[in-house]
Each structure stands twice: as C-alpha cells, then as structure tokens.
TrEMBL record, chain A:
Lineage of source species: Bacteria, Bacillati, Bacillota, Bacilli, Bacillales
Highest rank taxon of the organism: Bacteria
SUPFAM superfamilies reported in the protein's UniProt record: PTS system IIB component-like
Species for this entry: Brevibacillus fulvus
MF (Gene Ontology): protein-N(PI)-phosphohistidine-sugar phosphotransferase activity
Annotated Gene3D superfamilies: 3.40.50.2300
Protein name: PTS system galactitol-specific IIB component
Family annotation (Pfam families): PTS_IIB
Entry annotated with the keyword Lipid metabolism: no
Keywords: Transferase
Keyword Transferase: yes
Residue ranges occupied by any Phosphotransferase system EIIB component type 2/3 domain in the UniProt entry: 5-69
One GO-annotated biological process of the protein: phosphoenolpyruvate-dependent sugar phosphotransferase system
Automatic annotation (TrEMBL), chain B:
TM helices/strands, residue ranges: none
Domain PTS EIIA type-2: from-to ranges: 1-146
InterPro entries: PTrfase/Anion_transptr (IPR016152), PTS_EIIA_type-2_dom (IPR002178), PTS_SugarTrans_NitroReg (IPR051541)
Top-level division of the source organism's lineage: Bacteria
Protein name: PTS system galactitol-specific IIA component
Originating species: Brevibacillus fulvus
CDD domains the UniProt entry points to: PTS_IIA_fru
PROSITE patterns from the UniProt entry: PTS_EIIA_TYPE_2
Length: 100, 152
C-alpha cells in the first residue's frame, strides 16, 4: 500500500507541527491510510515541496505565497477542534485522489 | 510542572506582560534559559499563537528548544482578555483569556502531552472551569488531571 508523505508546517517547525503531525497520522491510520510526516518551518516549506518527496502540506501558520506544486490544507482545526473532522475528511480525500 | 506556574485571575495590560510574568516563573525555577522570554516575545511578533477555540480563546506562546532546559507548561487565566494575534491569520487580533506558555525541550518526547493539550483546548467546560478557579492549586489539579487522562 502506498505510504503518503505529509509535510507539517508551523511557526517554529517543532511544537505545533508535532501536535498536528501526530493527530493526522492517527486519524489517517483509522481511515486505512499510511502516512509519514515531517515537521518544518514556513520558510522551509517550499524547499521540501520542491524536493518532490511530499504529497501534501498541512499548516497552522500561513505559508509564504509560492507555487508549492502540491495541495496545502490549513490544519488549525486540529488544535481548536473547530472543523477538525472536516479537516481530516479533506486530507483523506486529497490523499485518496492522489493514489488514483 | 509546578503549582507556582499556574496564575489565576491575572490582571495584565498586554500579551507581552503575561508572557513576561509566566516566563519569569519558569526562569526562577530553572526550567528555561535567560534567553527564553525574549525569544518567545520575538516569535509572537512574527509568528503569533492565538487560537480561536470558540467560547474561550487561548494562546500557546512558545519558542525553540534551545532556550528550554526542562519541558513544562505554565498557565495564566486572565481577569480581562488580552489581545493575541491569530496563528492562522496574523493580521487578526483576538481577546484571549487563557495563556499556556509552553517550554518544550524535545517535541518528539512530548507528543502525548501536546496531543492532550489540544484536547484541553477543545473542552469548553474545562476551559470555563479553569477561568472560574481562583487558586493556583485548583488550576494545577485541573491541568494535571486533564494531561493524565488516557487518550485525552
């Protein structure tokens, strides 16, 4: 089965992105998708995205305007609970559409 | 996590003041380096940490691990909200009544704790209870219980 690589971006590239990464990993596993996550700062996101190794970016801080070439989804619902399920739905749909 | 890190019904004029007061507690207890408070303040300016949770807005100021000696959490509940800018939209300010100052040495080791923290942000009844609690021992106990609960 395909294993998806998700880039989790937050301001410091550590604390918040680790929270989000863990929750995304767990929720996608529950939905039958295997996910590997990498944490990064907003300023590092473009380099990672252009490496071609990542399927999707989830972020809690705004991403600098750029052409990332892969889908980007705001993950703040993971922290606040507002729109959290909708966020997981969107991540799942995005990954499943990539697998086709 | 020490009881003295929990300050109920604090009166402060700005988020900088709250971060300074909480940070000083961590510094006095040896949990953070002398550079910690300035690093948190600077980060808050460029990458703010306000979160709109619905009923009771929170903020989670923090900074890089290099300024942290030992991982812990400090919390101030505010008598009157202070403004923080939103993490997702730094141009927008929100009034925050619960400020969780995070000192994180190694996020990978703290994943469980961080996850439980997000569960706290989503528990409106608990957030309201924290706001109403008038003594630091009471808030410390609420936090300890919430962070210890399995699967948040």
């Amino acid at each position: 089965m395909k294993r998806f690589n998700i880039l989790s971006v937050c301001g410091s590239g550590t604390v918040t992105s680790s929270m989000v990464a863990e929750k995304v990993k767990e929720s996608m596993e529950e939905r039958g998708l295997q996910v590997k996550t990498t944490e990064a700062k907003p300023t590092e996101a473009l380099n990672y995205a252009q490496s071609g190794s990542y399927d999707l970016i989830v972020h809690t801080s705004p991403l600098p305007a750029a052409d990332y070439g892969i889908p980007t989804i705001s993950a703040v619902g993971c922290l606040t609970g507002i729109g959290e399920e909708e966020f997981y739905d969107e991540v799942e749909q995005t990954l499943r559409s990539l697998a086709k | 996590m020490l009881q003295e890190f929990f300050i109920p019904k604090l009166t402060a004029a700005s988020n900088e003041e709250v971060i300074g007061i909480l940070g000083q507690k961590l510094l006095n207890a040896g949990y953070v380096a002398a550079t910690f408070i300035d690093a948190v303040l600077q980060r808050e300016r460029t990458l703010p940490t306000g979160l709109q949770t619905g009923a009771v807005n929170v903020a989670i100021p923090h900074t890089d691990a290099t300024h942290v000696v030992k991982s812990t959490i400090a919390l101030a509940t505010l008598a009157q909200p202070v403004n923080f800018r939103l993490m997702v939209d730094p141009a927008t300010e929100i009034g925050v009544q619960l400020v969780f100052l995070l000192a994180v040495r190694d996020p990978r080791e703290q994943v469980e704790l961080l996850k439980k923290l997000t569960a706290i942000f989503q528990d409106e009844a608990l957030l309201r209870q924290m706001l109403e609690t008038a003594d630091s021992q009471g808030i410390y106990q609420l936090m300890s219980a919430a962070l210890a609960v399995k699967n948040g």
